[in-house]
Design goal:
By secondary structure, the protein is an alpha/beta fold. It has one domain: Aldolase class I (TIM Barrel), CATH 3.20.20.70. It has 7 helices and 8 strands. An 8-stranded parallel β-sheet has the order 1-8-7-6-5-4-3-2. It starts with 6 loop residues before the first strand and ends with a helix. The structure holds D-xylitol-5-phosphate (DX5) and zinc ion (ZN).
C-alpha cells in the first residue's frame, strides 16, 4: 500500500553543526515535515552524537515537530528530559528496553507521540504485542550509529510486513524508515509501505543545498504511482 502523503524527516546528524539553526530553518522553509534528532550514547551504538541541549536549541528555531530517536541504553531514564526540552515524538529501541510498555506509556503521559525502533536483526513479529501501544515504528534500514551508510535491501520485506500488521490493527501508526534513504531508495520504501522517510545525508550535504536535497527527494517520490 502506498500512502498518498509521505512525510520527510531530515536528520540533523548530517547537518553542519556550526550553523545548525540555519540548516534547520532551511529544512522547514523547504517543506520538511519533521526534524529528526539522533541521540547516541556510545553504548547502545558505537558513536556519541547529541543530547538534550541540542533538542532545546533546535526547539527555539523551528515550529516543526521534533522527532527524537534515542539510540541509548536505559532510555526510560532520559525521556522526561527530552520531553521537557521540546520533543514531540520520542522513539526508543526495542533492543534497549526491557519494559517497553511502561516507557511508551510514560512518553505519552508526557504529551509526546511514542515510537519503537528496531535494528536490522529484529524481526517484524517482535513488535506484535507492543504495536497497539505505539504511535510510530522506526524500521532501521542500516545498523544504527552513523549517517551516510548504505540501505540494506533485505529490510524491504520487513517494511511491508509491518505495514500489513498496522493495517490489521486499523490504527493510524506511522511507519518510518531510517538509514540510506535517498532519491534512489525513496520510491521502493514508499511502495513497501513506509510513510515517514528519515533522510540525513541526502538532505544535509556539503555537495548541495538543503532546498535541492529536499526537492530531489520530493521529485523521486512524485514518480511513485499512487
Ligand atoms: C543512523 C541514524 C539516522 C541517520 C540517517 O543511526 O538513526 O537517522 O542520520 O542518515 P543517512 O540518511 O545519511 O543514512
Ligand atoms: Zn535516526
Amino acid at each position: 500500500m502506498i500512502h498518498k502523503v509521505i512525510h520527510l524527516a531530515p536528520s540533523i546528524l548530517a547537518a553542519d553543526f556550526a550553523r545548525l539553526g540555519e540548516q534547520v530553518a532551511d529544512a522547514e522553509a523547504n517543506g520538511a515535515d519533521l526534524i529528526h534528532i539522533d541521540v547516541m550514547d556510545g553504548r547502545f551504538v558505537p558513536n556519541i552524537s547529541m543530547g538534550v541541549v541540542v533538542v532545546e536549541a533546535v526547539r527555539r528555531v523551528t515550529s516543526l515537530p521534533l522527532d527524537v530517536h534515542l539510540m541509548i541504553v536505559e532510555p526510560a531514564t532520559h525521556i522526561e528530559a527530552f520531553a521537557h526540552a521540546g520533543a514531540n515524538r520520542i522513539t526508543v529501541h526495542y533492543e534497549a528496553d526491557n519494559h517497553l510498555h511502561r516507557t511508551l506509556t510514560t512518553i505519552k503521559e508526557l504529551g509526546c507521540m511514542a515510537g519503537v525502533a528496531i535494528n536490522p536483526h529484529t524481526p517484524a513479529l517482535a513488535l506484535e504485542a507492543i504495536l497497539p501501544f505505539v504511535d510510530q515504528v522506526n524500521v532501521m534500514t542500516v545498523n544504527p550509529g552513523f549517517g551516510g551508510q548504505h540501505f540494506i535491501p533485505e529490510m524491504m520485506s520487513k517494511i511491508a510486513e509491518i505495514r500489513a500488521m498496522i493495517g490489521n490493527l486499523r490504527r493510524d501508526i506511522g511507519l518510518q524508515v531510517d538509514g540510506g534513504i535517498n532519491p534512489q531508495t525513496a520510491m521502493s520504501v514508499a511502495q513497501a509501505g513506509a510513510n515517514i522517510l528519515v533522510v540525513g545525508s541526502a538532505v544535509f550535504n556539503p555537495q548541495f543545498s538543503v532546498a535541492e536535497g529536499i526537492a530531489r527527494m520530493r521529485k523521486a517520490l512524485a514518480t511513485t504511482p499512487v
